[in-house]
Amino acid sequence: MATPAEVANDMAAHERYWDGRDREVASTCRQAANLIRAFLNGDRVDGRSYHGLHKRLLRLDLRENVQGYPNFQRARLTLEELKRRANGA
């Protein structure tokens, strides 16, 4: 399984690729990379940002799997794990 840092780097790479192709996918990838890095840096992440991104990741993950689409499920699961760690669970 990929480390959270690798997932963040993967999302950042996908953001650069999807920029100009699909604005929603590019924005979600950028925000996922930033939020994962914030958790890794020990920054406090507000619930509104987390839950908004979580909702978008779920919605995009339900789209038909298009070849080349980022792995939104992996990003979502990584964020969930980092949030659990941050909350001390």
In short:
The chain is mostly helical. It has helices spanning 4-18, 23-40, 47-61, 72-86.
Query: Which regions are unreliable across 5 or more consecutive residues at pLDDT < 50?
Result: none
Derived structural class: mainly alpha
- What is the number of beta strands? 0
Query: What oligomerization state is this entry in?
Result: single chain
- Could you say which overall geometry the principal axes of the C-alpha atoms support? globular
Number of helices: 4
Tell me the radius of gyration.
12 Å
- Residue fraction in strands: under 5%
Summarize the biggest pleated sheet. Answer: none
Helix-strand string: HHHH
| Average predicted local confidence, pLDDT | 91
Straight-line N-to-C gap: 21 Å
- Helix content percent band: over 70%
Q: What does this entry look like structurally?
A:
This protein has four helices and no strands. It is mainly α and 89 residues long. The radius of gyration is 12 Å and the shape is globular. The model has no long low-confidence stretch (mean pLDDT 91).
Write the layout of secondary structure elements.
Blueprint: H1 4-18, H2 23-40, H3 47-61, H4 72-86
Helix pairs in contact: 1-2, 1-4, 2-3, 2-4, 3-4
